[in-house]
Design brief:
Structural class: alpha/beta
Largest sheet: 7 strands, mixed
Order of helices and strands: EHEEEEEHHEHEEEEHH
Radius of gyration: 15 Å
Oligomer: single chain
Shape: globular
Strand content: 15-25%
Number of helices: 6
Helix content: 25-40%
Length: 183
């Protein structure tokens, strides 16, 4: 089935975070939104309040099939500042767990040195923060155990790429068709 964890920090880009949750749940992936802000209520970058499913400090990530980071300038800075999340990402890298990030959030992975030797994409102009990665301009870049994407406008193909990894391309295609996505 697959188990996904989407990490939400105050200032996150709402469409990037919630699109992936919606598409994964439509595809039958058990998806948990996790607050790294110490409160279940997270306020996105456009003042939309969202109720997370769980607090980071109360979440066991040992069953994760994917860890997902939505972007947003302030949200990404808040993700970078969360030391326990950095530890979880390093652990996921070591375990071979899929890690996905969109918009500015791939810079979290770059800053931790996790993208060394991989291809990655991110929000235009932030490529220099993808330390050790070969930056691309792809809408969605898959490389090794990573999926990265460029921004709010690429949220649907990003989410479908994650779904394809977890449930297969046929499931992702069916969900894409059901939402009238035309890539």
């Amino acid at each position: 089935m697959g188990r996904a964890y989407v990490f939400l920090a105050d200032g996150f880009e709402e469409i990037e975070g919630l699109t992936v949750v919606d598409i994964l749940r439509r595809g039958g992936v058990e998806t948990c939104t996790v607050s790294v802000s110490g409160s279940l209520t997270i306020t996105g970058g456009h003042d939309i309040a969202v109720q997370a499913d769980a607090l980071f400090e109360e979440t066991d990530l040992s069953d994760a099939d994917v860890l997902i980071l939505p972007g947003g300038k302030v949200g990404t800075e808040n993700l970078k500042a969360h030391g326990p999340l950095a530890g979880a990402l390093r652990g996921a890298k070591s375990a071979g767990t899929l890690i996905a990030a969109i918009c500015a959030a791939p810079t979290v992975l770059g800053g931790l040195g996790l993208l060394r030797g991989e291809k990655a994409t991110c929000y235009p102009g932030l490529e220099g923060q993808l330390e050790g990665a070969k930056a691309t301009q792809e809408t969605v870049q898959e490389s090794g155990q990573f999926i990265t994407s460029r921004g709010m406008g690429t949220s649907i193909p990003f989410a479908l790429a994650v779904l394809a990894k977890l449930r297969g391309q046929e499931t992702a295609d069916a969900i894409g068709k059901s939402i009238v996505w035309q890539a």
